[in-house]
Amino acid sequence: MSETKTKPTLAVWKFTSCDGCQLSLLDCEDELLAIAGAVDIAYFPEATRAMKPGPYDVSLVEGSLSTPEHLEQIKEIRAQSHILVSIGACATSGGIQALRNLQNVDEMTSAVYAHPEYIETLADSRPVDAEVHVDFMLRGCPISKAQLIELLIALLQQRKPNLAQGSVCMECKKKQVVCVMVAKGQPCLGPVTHAGCDALCPSYNRGCFGCFGHAPDANVESIVEVWRHIGCSDRTLHRAFDQFHAGTEVAARARAYIDASTSEDEKGSET
């Protein structure tokens, strides 16, 4: 009698986030049923009561690291996981909550909570790869279902996943979407945003707002000047770069350039 082949085990973990990326997984419907038959979903509190101990073949991690406890937990997850994948803007860049990285967290907790002494939090919101090695990243807020399915199928087939590379502009070219910034004068972060959304917003005649994260080779100086040329204020530029990914190096570079090149008239208009 031949040995029974065991299914690869999948675990899904959550840190500081809105659960949107986990819901994207549940929203796969028919595809998820097929995948569920091929894997053993060992840990996924959003979907099942099953809580099987590790080690796990694949771990999907949603959310940013925001507390001292998170730092210990992510190290334990990494140690139990053969492949670790960070999913969503929070896990890959710190997310919207990384806006707090630009403020005094002690002052913020004192303003929000009646007893801030009970709050244990880090001074910053960190992506998963700031603390442990990450094998793959799925960007987006939320992630692309198509990319998630491709990743899981690729891992089941023991091949490298075919994930989008380049910028959103490349996806617009492939879909023959007319550039909303050139043709309509709309602000768009497509040139400095990582591909993966299939040019969703430009396909509906609106500019990209960067939810898939900054492209690593982003030419922030150029896009800042283009946005200024079409009438955007520096305050608008700050909000655009910081909205989803304030904790990244690209956002920091954009802030530094915007502030260093702000005209005296612009400074006066924003005081």
Structural class: alpha/beta
Q: How many domain modules?
A: 2
Strand order of the largest sheet: 2-1-3-4-5
Q: Termini distance?
A: 79 Å
Indicate the radius of gyration in whole angstroms.
21 Å
Task: Give me the number of helical elements.
Answer: 13
CATH class category label of the largest domain: Alpha Beta
CATH architecture of the largest domain: 3-Layer(aba) Sandwich
Write out the CATH superfamily name of the largest domain. NADH:ubiquinone oxidoreductase-like, 20kDa subunit
CATH topology of the largest domain: Rossmann fold
Q: Which ranges are low-confidence, i.e. pLDDT below 50, for 5 or more consecutive residues?
A: none
Proportion of residues in helical segments = 40-55%
- The total strand number stands at 5
What is the molecular shape?
Answer: globular
Largest β-sheet summary: 5 strands, parallel
Order of helices and strands: EHHEEHEHHEHHHHHHHH
The average pLDDT value, as a whole number, equals 90
Strand content: 5-15%
Task: Describe the protein's architecture and organization.
The chain is 40% helix and 10% strand. It is an alpha/beta fold. The protein folds into two domains: 9-156, NADH:ubiquinone oxidoreductase-like, 20kDa subunit (Rossmann fold, 3-Layer(aba) Sandwich), CATH 3.40.50; 168-269, no CATH class. α3 (68-80) links the parallel β3 and β4 (81-87). The longest helix has 13 residues, at 68-80. It is globular, with a radius of gyration of 21 Å. The mean pLDDT is 90.
